Amino acid sequence: MQGVKARGAGGSFLPAPGGWDQGLEASVSAGDSRRGGRGAAFQADGLAEGIARLRRALRRGARVADPGNALAVAQLELLGALAEHPGARPGQLARLLNMRPNTVATIVSALAARGLVARVAAEDDRRAVELSVTGSGQQAVLAWQATNAAVLNLALSTLPARQQRALAAAVPALEALALAIDRLADTQGPSSGPEAR
């Protein structure tokens, strides 16, 4: 199907105490006042569950389609995030992917041992480390994305044309939603500190 493309899985995030929750409550309240009920909240719940189910299904489908891929999903997600943010520091990746810094350090060490990630000292702070995806790491990212795209295209081909058109039409809105969530995460998330090294 034309028009619907596979998109790399983005990272989730933990909101800052109070800020995110209060913003969410305000948004739901505003939606209630405009719509006269909790329809907006129910719609958001349904969308969140649908996205989560799609992500689980796509992950399972990709594993079945490429059983020889020895990388864990967390490793692939970190590689994908690093490919989008070359030169990122471990703490920045931890925040982006909502992972503990020590978890990121463990994953980075495993990927570096495979020759998929390179570590260099930052020019502005020799104590800090900047990360980049190697050529082999980029190939792993592209292969994983291609597998996801193949699984999506095969699944889409089994759907009625009306549903295919609806999904194609929803792509811009989903992209805008992802950007809006990223902006909220950047605004409400914890400020950068020593862990960004």
Explain the layout of strands and helices.
Layout: H1 19-35, H2 39-65, H3 73-84, H4 90-97, H5 101-113, E1 117-121, E2 129-133, H6 135-157, H7 161-188
Antiparallel strand pairs: 1-2
Helix pairs in contact: 2-6, 3-5, 3-6, 4-5
Notes on the structure:
The chain has 197 residues and is mainly alpha-helical. It has one domain (44-196): Winged helix-like DNA-binding domain superfamily/Winged helix DNA-binding domain (Arc Repressor Mutant, subunit A), CATH 1.10.10.10. The protein contains 7 helices and 2 strands. The chain has helices at 19-35, 39-65, 73-84, 90-97, 101-113, 135-157, 161-188, and strands spanning 117-121, 129-133. The protein has a two-stranded antiparallel ribbon with strand order 1-2. The longest helix is centred in the last third of the chain and has 28 residues, at 161-188. It is globular, with a radius of gyration of 19 Å. The N and C termini lie far apart (43 Å).
